[in-house]
Amino acid sequence: MAGANLNTSLYFVEQITPWDVYKHGIDKMLVHQKTKYQEMFIVEGVYGKALILDGKWQSCTEDEFLYHECLVHPPMIFHGSPRKVLVFGGAEGATVREVLRWKTVEQVVMVDIDGEVVEACKKYFPEMHQNVFEDPRLELIIDDAQNFLESSLETWDVIISDLTDPIEEGLSFPLFTQEYFQKIRNILSADGLFIIQAGSISPPEMYLHVRVVKTLQTVFNYVHSVAPYATSYGCPLGFVVSSDREFSLQVNPEKVDSLLLEKTTGGFKLMDGISLLGMSRIPLNLRQAIAAETQIYTLKNPPQDIKV
Ligand code: SPD
User: Fold this and answer.
1) Rounded Cα–Cα distance for residues 276 and 292 (Å)
2) Mean pLDDT for the chain overall
């Protein structure tokens, strides 16, 4: 069994749900820092090096491609020829690394609130960022996504939200509301696509993902979940792709493979036509939950019956 020879007495314990924890064995603690916004750990173990923020596992060098390739490429592929891409979050640099694989991309702006985390990631995760912070097509802005949206006048072909999990109370709640998604829509080009990391799709917690989907459906004409398998989060995640232009999940794997061959560089570990087809097929229980849900998230009427 993998990890059977683990010889550590040090564990990082992550609360996955109020009833479940995930114990990650640790060989070395590389960083522990309280930044202006959050508590950061960078640790090392059988999964390589990992970033943990406010007690939540963000990514690790061993399996981050499962998350980042699935977050970035679906909207890029559905667009076909993205030139301008906006990324919210993504301190490790792996999200922009995937964006910059696209030869069509001329401009990327990455907005992350926490410059201290970005600096630590530059130092400790060269495997993830692969020096993309030096790419002249990338502009890094240290700011709150909401401030940026207030002042942004440009439009974008693809917008990627690589932020926290959805929650129904607290500081991140506004980032999952109808008002916020309307602002995103205002800065998307007419054929642009938006993808958001929208939390766990395991049965006890999928209502959060489902409500994000329903909220997005009030803003965009076409909204679909995709389900990557990202192994070190302790639960299956769901991303949501939204657009006002129709995009088909009836993916033709051969066409996707030739698009990727023509328009990207570097090769993939996970993404190809077959993988995109697979992650676009979400299970029946999730489709049924989306069909049955009536709650949407607005700032005006935040949820009253918050589950713990
Ligand atoms: N519970 C999963 C949380 C993942 C949040 N973001 C990951 C960031 C990777 N760039």
Assistant:
1) 26
2) 94
